[in-house]
Amino acid sequence: MATVALTAANFDEVTNKDGIVLVDFWASWCGPCVRFAPTYERSSEKHPEITFGKVDTEAEQLLAAKFDIRSIPTIMAVRDGIVVFSQPGALPETALESLIEKVEELNMDEVREQIAAQSKPATSADEPAAARG
């Protein structure tokens, strides 16, 4: 499968669906980005069930800012609409394949439970007795 150009107009539509979406934040002037591109393309051909997207950070500056992209390339993995991985740096092919395996193996019910637990507001029952006075 060829890579998909992701823009502010289509990013949410592509990444909020069920399944895995890998996102490569890159720029044409970035040497490591250019060297990583063939690895990313080869991986996209091996995994037709995964959407491989590319965000040109020069053309999509607001999208890069939304995800606080400070270094490129940055690889992001989204599964079932949830960002489960984001890391700057070009990955060797073996590391990219390992990342894909780990994302495929995730138990998304557990991931959602962890997110819910982290976003749960503290209640007085959660406070130590000394704090309740």
UniProtKB/TrEMBL annotation:
Gene3D superfamilies in UniProt: Glutaredoxin (3.40.30.10)
Pfam family of the protein (one): Thioredoxin
Annotated TM spans: none
PROSITE patterns: THIOREDOXIN_1 (PS00194), THIOREDOXIN_2 (PS51352)
Protein name: Thioredoxin
Family: Belongs to the thioredoxin family.
Entries under SUPFAM superfamilies matching the protein: Thioredoxin-like
Ranges for region Disordered: 112-133
Lineage: Bacteria, Bacillati, Actinomycetota, Actinomycetes, Micromonosporales
InterPro entries, alphabetized: Thioredoxin (IPR005746), Thioredoxin-like_sf (IPR036249), Thioredoxin_CS (IPR017937), Thioredoxin_domain (IPR013766)
Annotated Thioredoxin domain residues: 1-105
Keywords of the record: Disulfide bond, Electron transport, Redox-active center, Transport
